[in-house]
Design goal:
Blueprint (H helix, E strand, L loop, with lengths): L18 E4 L5 E8 L6 H5 L13 E7 L4 E7 L3 E3 L11 H4 E5 L2 E4 L6
Antiparallel strand pairs: 1-2, 1-5, 2-3, 3-4, 6-7
Length: about 120
């Protein structure tokens, strides 16, 4: 019997400026960069509990994130994101530095952050 291997979609489903929510955890934010596959430290990777650890071979998104308590930057796999349909602004302090107006769930890009 051949073990089932999940199919990983390597095409980015979300774009820079799009407002998204985490599928599991209670936070939302705006995407400001995309890695075509996992590009963080092994230490970060291993800190994720095995039962919820995503596959590395999919897009990962850098997000100006917020929850009810704070603003921060998040690094999230594609499989753990869904579009945010609230059309509410993201109140992260770096959003105005990079983005203009919010229209239908997507911010207008005004500048790029250097890598």
């Amino acid at each position: 019997m051949i073990p089932h291997t999940p199919v990983i979609d390597k095409n980015a489903h979300f774009t820079i400026g799009q407002v998204v929510q985490h599928r599991v955890f209670a936070f939302r934010g705006v995407i400001f960069d995309v890695d075509p596959e996992f590009s963080n430290s092994e230490e970060w990777w291993e800190s994720i509990p095995v039962e919820v650890r995503p596959e590395k071979g999919q897009p990962f998104y850098h997000i100006f994130a917020e929850n009810e308590e704070s603003s921060y930057e998040a690094y999230v796999s594609q499989q753990n994101l869904i579009p945010d349909t609230s059309d509410e602004p993201v109140n992260h302090p770096e959003v105005p530095e990079m983005f203009g107006e919010l229209h239908e769930g997507k911010y207008e890009l005004i500048s790029l952050l250097p890598h």
